[in-house]
Amino acid sequence: MDPDRENAAAEALVIIEDLRKSFQHMGSTLDVLKGIDLNIYPGQTLSIIGASGAGKSTLLHCIGTLDLPTSGRIRLAGEELTTMSSSRLAEVRNRLIGFVFQFHHLLPEFTALENVMMPGLIQGRPKKQMRDRARALLAEVGLEPRATHRPGELSGGEQQRVAIARALVLDPKIILADEPTGNLDSSTSDAIHELLFEINEEHGTTIVVVTHNPGWAERMPRVVRMLDGKVVEDRETGLRRGLPPESTGTETSAESSAPSESSASSPKS
Ligand SMILES: Nc1ncnc2c1ncn2[C@@H]1O[C@H](COP(=O)(O)OP(=O)(O)OP(=O)(O)O)[C@@H](O)[C@H]1O
Ligand SMILES: [Mg+2]
Description:
By secondary structure, the chain is of the alpha/beta class. The protein is 35% helix and 24% strand.
């Protein structure tokens, strides 16, 4: 690693180096990630865009420890994921990562409140503590009055907000969202994206969103484009929190993003 890159990498929350992922399918090898280099910094919000099949979900799953890469390295908060045992991976996943998927994966027989509490209960955290935290998070996503509703008694956008509250319940360092609004109408989708920005500001959570929504992708402070298993573009939009710089007072957009981004994480072409 060159010194510039090493300095920047020291501050990164996620460091991905030459990440490759292949699938075996019907006797042949399908190369899906073909050498990804990417650093993600604490407190960043960024979108990953690119055509269907580019490898966006596969990359997110590797970062999120839901899938193992074929080769390469991923460090998350200083921990090397690629050589970890599955029990350690599960521990890291619980402690550091929150997921939001296109389909919320809420448990249908439990209420909104219980769904939000669930990751904590599975971890054996005290029930009262988790209930209080879940209540506070439901209030934060604007759903306190729906706490006793089951998923089937909530709208799509409300279900997704419960899923976001659930992703936050163990106070993760990073939220990985895979097309969180793919299933929603445009105004609900805007509200969900807005909520993600609010969470980023309130909690400092790093947020990575895979999205096909061009409007939203372009309003993120940082946009990473994938094509055919590679990062082909990694740029800062000059925006902060989805708003043009002039709407954000005196701060400049550069403050919202990573140190020496260009040397650290842009694809080297
Ligand atoms: N388990 C698997 N076995 C074989 N091939 C797979 C597997 N999972 C994904 N793929 C292939 O890997 C490629 C990338 O898939 P991935 O889901 O990462 O794409 P994506 O960029 O998220 O696309 P989309 O925008 O449609 O969600 C696809 O061509 C897909 O068919
Ligand atoms: Mg996908």
